[in-house]
Amino acid sequence: MQRKFLANLGFLLLLNLIIKPVWIFGIDLNVQNTVGAEDYGFYFNLFNFSFLFNILFDFGITNFNNRNIAQNNQLLNKHLSSILILKILLGMLYFVITFLVAVLWGYKGKELYMLLFLGINQFLISFILYLRSNVSALLLFKTDSILSVLDRIVMIVICSVLLWGGITNTPFRIEWFVYAQTVAYIITFAIAFVIVIRKAKFKRLNWNYPFFLVLLKQSLPYAILVMLMTFYNKFDTVMLVRLIEGSEGKIQSGIYAHSYRLLDAANNIAFLFSMLLLPLFARLLKTKHSVVNLVRLSFSLLFVLSVTTTAAAYTFNSEIISLLYDHYLSESAKLFPVLMGCFIAISTSYVFGTLLTANGSLKQLNYLALIGMLMNLTLNLVLIPHLGALGSGWASLTTQSIMAISQVVLCFIYFKFSLRLRYLIQLCLFTIGVFTSGYFSQFMSGNWLINLTIMIISSLALAAILRLLNVGYFIKILKERSVSV
What CA–CA distance (Å, rounded) separates 170 from 40? Predict the structure, then answer.
């Protein structure tokens, strides 16, 4: 199972490392700079608001389905024929509740118009993720990897034409960005749908009311978990706009988006781990195989990546922000290392939280998520009026760190993991070494990009010396024959 994880992770990372940087630094970054912090902040606020109730599209079905189909492949056709109908009904519920809350929140006119298209995008994303959950549950990871970047490929093409194709006489508008997303998601949905119905030998839709009730009941813990986590991950910018009056609130949202987009880019890699880990953990747990080796392998990889990335953001914050953005550079540079610190906590959660999800420990995760939501809300209410976007960044870092530590503790309790002092020392030495390397690398040359490269290389070397990245072990795993479990 470790071999399957590493082999497919390599392919998945290769695709994403080719496509995602082009999207983030070539397209999304240029859109932010072209439309400006205020207009992008307007979009980013509504984008996050559209996320708040997107659990109503899914109701936890995707996570439940990934775990269930991974353990029971033969149920794919039966579940697919009914779940498609159920998701359409849930989508209708999403639009009713989202627009009702939006009107009560004070949105109107252009805000509601933009929210409509963002809601459609959320609906399509939800369907795509559900379809992909079937693909990954069947352990068709290469197909899922291609689907994971397909929407970005389409958006890169469309936005490139709009930004640099000279086909319009007017400056790029933020609405075009949203429309491009809609087209890309429609194309990706269509292709994913064809793949899944062929694998499921799908023939017709099946209205099965008793199945709906049973599925919603079984998925409810997943739905509550996703909703609570969404609120403490996405509500920050919504609060920024409401707690800071006038255009300054949109500007602060735009400043937050500068750093958040880079955090989101890093999180995409950690999220790819969780997409692979959930069905693998579920299969291992069902067959009563040990998960220890897979947990340690995946956590070590993510820990090296997240600590190195965070140290780079801390050491070269001003240089990175100045390279990427045109506006509000000093404010963004202060926020950047704080928000990037969340990457370590989020990466940890993507391993240990995914293991708890695969184990069905939803009640405990929901209690933690509720505490996290209340904590994040309280911290934002206190910090935003005084510190603006920076206060929201500190609220996120505090919340994410406490949630990650709590999930690790739960895993040690439920799976009876033993605390290996040597491994803990390795992690501590690596963290100290990377930040120390970052500090001294600043004085290596007059070019900060060269210094950053030196820091990254030395960090990887340190990880290899400490055997957090054991190249020989990885090669041995990949040479082993795949064993079905």
Answer: 17
> By C-alpha distance, which of 371, 378, 282, 386 is closest to 65?
282
**Among 275, 267, 277, which Cα is nearest to 299's?**
277
Q: Between 184 and 284, whose confidence is greater?
A: 184
Residue 186 has pLDDT above 50, yes or no: yes
- Determine the pLDDT at residue 7: 56
Nearest to 150 by CA among 89, 88, 195: 195
Task: Round the average pLDDT of the chain to a whole number and report it.
Answer: 82
254 and 328 Cβ atoms separated by less than 8 Å = yes
List, for residues 7-48, the tens digit of each pLDDT value.
Answer: 556 666 677 777 877 887 788 888 888 888 788 888 888 888
CA distances to 32, 145, 168, 181, 274 from 157, in Å: 17, 19, 16, 11, 28
Contact between 69 and 139 (Cβ < 8 Å): no
Higher pLDDT, 60 or 358: 358
Q: Is 330 helix (H, G, I), strand (E, B) or coil?
A: helix
- pLDDT for 454 equals 93
pLDDT at 483: 39
Q: Of 9-18, 295-304, 423-432, 468-477, where does mean pLDDT reach its minimum? A: 468-477
pLDDT tens sequence across 146-158? 888 888 899 999 9
Cα 326 from Cα 300, distance rounded (Å): 36
Assign 54 to helix, strand or coil.
coil
Instruction: Report how far apart, in Å, the C-alpha atoms of 471 and of each of 115, 244, 461, 465 are.
Output: 48, 50, 11, 10
Query: So where are the chain's domains?
Result: 2-417
**410 phi, psi to nearest 5 deg:** -60, -40
- Output the six-digit token pair for 231: 């609120």
Identify the CA nearest to 129 among candidates 295, 283, 271: 271
- Other beta carbons within 10 angstroms of residue 324's beta carbon come to 19
Q: What is the 3-state secondary structure (H, E, C) of 131-149?
A: HHHHHHHCCCHHHHHHHHH
The most distant pair of C-alpha atoms in the chain lies apart, rounded to whole Å, by 68
Share of the chain above pLDDT 70, in %: 86
Residue-level pLDDT at 340: 92
Query: What is the number of H-type helices and E-type strands within the chain?
Result: 19, 0
Burial 412-442, CB ≥16 within 10 A → b, else e: eeebeeeeeeebeebbeebbebbbebbeebe
C-alpha to C-alpha distance for 427 and 348, rounded to whole angstroms: 13
Exposure string of 135-170, with b = 16+ CB inside 10 Å and e = fewer, is bbbbbbbebbbbbbbbbbbbbbebbeebbeeeeeee
